[in-house]
């Protein structure tokens, strides 16, 4: 599917506030409510819009301690990679897991209450996963930018 200028503008509007009604969106896009509705449905069918979510203020739910954990596996076999990935997906504290190039194999974004909770996570959950060779943790000092909006 090729996105036209209106599709791109619609996607930015929805990413900024997905609770806007089709009427509100139609006024911003200078389209009919039906046309906006049809475009949204098409973007959903095509898998361009994958989901709608609520973004939560992590500090208000006592999950404000963000850790970026770099991880090396002991070997790079398909079996080890697959096993690690299937296990790390199950860890609720891990918000993101990226297979990367460079000195480490994976970067995890971990969200917990505080240093003590991270230590507990590291000792009881993360290091109990098979095939981990080493880890290096970096702690967020402050969040300079955090956006979920993909621009065009």
UniProtKB/TrEMBL annotation:
GO MF terms held by the record: sequence-specific DNA binding
GO biological process, one term: regulation of DNA-templated transcription
Domain HTH asnC-type as annotated: residue spans: 3-66
Pfam families hit by this protein: AsnC_trans_reg, HTH_24
Xref: InterPro entries: ArsR-like_HTH, AsnC-type_HTH_dom, Dimeric_a/b-barrel, Tscrpt_reg_AsnC-like, Tscrpt_reg_AsnC/Lrp_C, WH-like_DNA-bd_sf, WH_DNA-bd_sf
GO CC aspect terms: cytosol
Chain ranges passing through the membrane: none
Keyword Cell division carried by entry: no
Domain of life: Bacteria
KW Transcription regulation (keyword) present: yes
Key words, A-Z: DNA-binding, Transcription, Transcription regulation
Record's protein name: Lrp/AsnC family transcriptional regulator
Organism field: Flavobacterium crocinum
């Amino acid at each position: 599917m090729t996105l036209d200028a209106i599709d791109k503008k619609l996607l930015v509007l929805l990413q900024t506030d997905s609770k806007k009604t089709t009427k509100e969106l139609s006024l911003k896009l200078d389209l009919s409510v039906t046309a906006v509705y049809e475009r949204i449905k098409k973007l959903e069918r095509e898998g361009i819009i994958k989901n709608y979510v609520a973004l939560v203020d992590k500090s208000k739910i006592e999950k404000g301690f963000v850790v970026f954990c770099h991880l090396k596996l002991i070997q790079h076999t398909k079996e080890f990679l697959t096993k690690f990935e299937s296990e790390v997906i199950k860890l609720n504290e891990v918000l993101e897991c990226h297979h990367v190039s460079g000195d480490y194999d994976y970067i995890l974004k971990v969200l917990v209450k505080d240093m003590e909770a991270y230590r507990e996570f590291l000792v009881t959950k993360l290091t109990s996963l098979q095939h981990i060779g080493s880890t290096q943790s970096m702690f967020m000092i402050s969040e300079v930018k955090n956006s979920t909006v993909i621009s065009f």
